[in-house]
Amino acid sequence: MQVKEVMTTQPQYLKNDVTIREAARTMRNNKTGFEPLTDANKVTGVITDRDIAVRAVAEGKSLDDKASSIASERVLYTYQDEDIESVVQNMTEQKVQRLLVLNNSENKDLVGIITLGDIANHCKDPQLAQKIVNASRTYN
């Protein structure tokens, strides 16, 4: 099974200059906990609901500060033709539950997001299911 078979397509994303408040509202409205930040067509970072709690609220940031000030600049991704087993291994090693999905190594266009939940929803292999469980225990 490949990433493109289970990923969420047409990902939402935010402009790099949105505020923390705007990012939180978007997550609430979209029922997500993760939003890529972009500058033009380039992904510059990702912001999670955990970033808002740990990097903004806990550190006393203003909700009117830029979301980019608390975003993770290290953008983790995979490609749409990647094998699911290697993606789960990558998520486990990186201690994350979601990755951006890019179309290929040449264009690197954002085409989706894949989560452990996406993979679990399509999982029919007991060994892969156990790997998903193990990966979900190690995320940051």
Overview of the molecule:
With 140 residues, the chain is α/β, with parallel strands linked by helices. It has one domain (3-136): CBS-domain (Roll), CATH 3.10.580. 34% of the residues lie in helices and 22% in strands. It contains 5 helices and 7 strands. It has a 4-stranded mixed sheet with strand order 1-7-6-5. A 3-stranded mixed sheet has the order 2-3-4. Helix 3 packs parallel to helix 5. The longest helix is centred in the N-terminal third of the chain and has 11 residues, at 20-30. The two termini are 26 Å apart. The mean pLDDT is 87.
How are the SSEs ordered, and which strands pair?
Elements: E1 8-9, E2 14-15, H1 20-30, E3 34-39, E4 42-48, H2 49-57, E5 77-79, H3 84-94, E6 98-102, E7 110-115, H4 116-121, H5 126-136
Parallel strand pairs: 2-3, 5-6
Antiparallel strand pairs: 1-7, 3-4, 6-7
Protein name: CBS domain-containing protein
Domain CBS: 7-63, 71-130
InterPro entries: CBS_dom, CBS_dom_sf, CBS_domain-containing
